[in-house]
Design a protein that fits this description.
The structure is a homodimer of 397-residue chains. With 397 residues, the first copy, chain A, is an alpha/beta fold. Chain A has helices spanning 2-11, 15-26, 54-64, 83-88, 99-109, 122-134, 140-153, 174-190, 212-223, 229-245, 252-265, 267-278, 314-326, 365-378, and strands at residues 42-46, 69-73, 111-115, 158-165, 194-201, 297-302, 307-312, 340-342, 350-351, 356-362, 379-382, 393-396.
Chain lengths: 397, 397
């Protein structure tokens, strides 16, 4: 299989080969049947980015809007974080649900966020383990088959894919991202799944925080109608695409407006609170985010220069958080939920010398000092604003 | 390692990478020191062909001419036979010699033919096992590193490589064979090994027999100054190249003439007889080849047509012998030494309808009948001779 994976990296797969691979991966395990649910069954999947806490706000928002969201999410690996790790930084939350518990939660609350159980596409787990040690992660057909075999097993009828573009994405260039998006859409649709791919910017982190508990905090802000604008925009847009794909809305802008009202009304947060309780977590944390795990050392990063932020390198930020203990090299490694970066400056911010451009959350003062140095390299400050960053929503397929 | 091998198939290795691979494979085991021997230490290696019994005649001939030949040979795998399997079809012969026994034989008789011991390039054995199951055999850098790591471990100072060209070779085209020959010569010479590569024709079988015991018989004919002309030509030429490479002769034609005399004098056969005895075999067989294992069924293949033989497909012949039981899929499979094909017609032979164009040696009449049909497909008969076959000796590097 390792040799096969490497051959696919260099030779690709044609349509029939890719379809055969998706089929055998999907059929290697159980396929959920959620057709009894009284509404559209839908999901969103991101190809992975830095600071991407979208799912934690999107799932309860979509459920509030009438969709059923059986979200089987992943763990962080390498420089990208994982929704499961973020969700589990809420004390008590478990994501290793049985299929029965998972189905029951989707039935009663319209959503659940759980790990892929042993039953779901077991071949994908085995292949992914091989890919991560054989340098064969960044292959479009392998990414497509991995994502779609899992998502098709969820029993969904529509899927919105958030395909990240830029330095913080697995496939950084726009051409690669477009090719991945097209392949996902082609294979998904050929299997009867209503599939939409949205290309979103990952040339900088999403939001102002990177790190598990810090990102939960920001997602909770979003669920209160607050938080950074870019996160809110992506959450509303992707959820709107889910509504349209599921036939619950016809125009994206109408759906976005309706969803913004829902978000500001606070009911999605209450829904997530019930789901947290059902998944073993402490629901009070959602009203009191200061009860999330907190790093003992918080150290501001101060700009030595005056100027304008012209770029924040998502890879450097991610690697810094990784080194602080917030990431893992192998699925067995433990992670520190409390570490990370908050208050990240973003492109266009005007800065005076001595201004805070980020806050490091670390386990030791030494870690914090080291990370602060790294962040000064990650945050580019120029004498004047340059419009080099990508539009947040680049394209829809 | 499987993923690495497949990556090498598609991306190749540059000079430094290939040298590093050869080094690590060589140093994975013992390296013989035969510098105490009172003459040049030399070997010949073939990239593998059909009917290639050259080593069995060449080794005693070269030893008779004053070279020391520590020949570590291989087993047949897939469609090509192996010198070890052929040698072992002489009753009693063992090729699993200890390094001590092997060295002693080279010292006293100037030659030995043995399997690569566990001590020699163990990494090569592991990689070869992976290559055979991952479809990564036909890669120039992998072939080069496999051959040279083993040959460098033999403690030789010069090496002649018989690079086969044509449908019966692992790399059939002339371009591939030239590239392989050049890579072997470049890497060998960069390591201080006097390396010569001779490209020889493998668009038809070598000699008139294919199958282990039958090939031994033909090699013994050659050692008696008899046997087919093509085999004698290749044996004399390659041994002459060994003499020149080792500094024992300056002109190939002079060396060939001297070696032809030696061959016709019968002493190389006597030498092989002593070696057979030392390796546990019955030396009387060399004078009485009818004591070699013999198949119970011998069935002539008769031409239905009149005409001229215009080609003998080595792959079809090899696959037929393989199916008769003369080959193996994995190194653990047993092989039948007695089966095969003899009296193979060759290009240019004029045939009348009803003439014998081959003899099948099989374990059952059913096998023989089936093989006879296959050989009719393998031996192409036309109305007139066409000079399409390759020159026997194509090129020397």
């Amino acid at each position: 299989m390792s040799a096969f994976l490497m051959a696919v990296v260099f030779r690709g797969l044609d349509g029939a080969e890719l379809d055969a691979l998706v089929e055998v991966m999907l059929r290697s395990g159980a396929v959920l049947d959620l057709s009894h649910l009284p509404g559209p069954v839908a999901d969103k999947h991101s190809t992975g980015g830095v600071g991407d806490k979208v799912s934690l706000a999107l799932a309860p928002l979509a459920a509030e809007a009438g969709l059923f969201v059986p979200m089987m999410a992943g763990r962080g690996l390498g420089h990208t974080g994982g929704t499961l790790d973020k969700f589990e930084s809420i004390p008590g939350v478990r994501t290793d649900l049985s299929l029965r518990h998972f189905r029951a939660l989707v039935e009663t609350e319209g959503m659940a966020i759980a790990g892929q159980t042993e039953d779901i596409a077991p071949l994908d787990r085995r292949l992914y383990a091989l890919r991560s040690v054989t340098g064969t992660v960044a292959s479009i057909p392998l990414i497509v088959s991995s994502i779609l075999s899992k998502k098709l097993a969820e029993g969904i009828s529509s899927l919105v894919l958030d395909v990240k573009v830029g330095r913080g994405a697995f496939l950084p260039t726009l051409d690669q991202a477009r090719a991945l998006a097209q392949a996902l859409v082609d294979v998904g649709r050929s299997r009867g799944l209503k599939t939409t791919a949205v290309l979103t910017a990952m040339d900088r982190p999403l939001g102002r925080t990177v790190g598990n508990a810090l990102e939960v905090r920001e997602a909770l802000d979003c669920l209160r109608g607050e938080g950074p604008e870019d996160l809110r925009t992506v959450v509303l847009h992707l959820t709107a695409q889910m509504m349209v794909a599921a036939g619950q809305a016809t125009r994206i802008s109408d759906a976005e407006a309706k969803l913004a009202d829902l978000l500001d009304g606070g009911r999605p947060l209450e829904r997530l609170q019930r789901v947290v309780l059902q998944q073993g977590g402490d629901p009070s944390v959602l009203d009191r985010p200061d009860r999330l795990p907190r790093a003992p050392v918080e150290r501001p990063v101060v700009s030595p220069l005056q100027g304008v932020v012209v770029g924040v390198d998502p890879l450097r930020v991610a690697r810094t958080v990784f080194a602080l203990g917030g990431g893992r090299k192998t699925l067995e490694d433990p992670i520190a939920p409390e570490v990370g970066v908050s208050h990240l400056a973003s492109s266009g911010d005007r800065i005076a010398a001595g201004d805070r451009i980020a806050v490091v959350h670390a386990r030791t003062p030494e870690d914090a000092a080291w990370a602060a140095e790294r962040l000064l390299e990650a945050i580019q400050i120029g004498s004047q604003a340059v419009p080099t960053s990508l539009p947040l929503i680049l394209d829809v397929r």
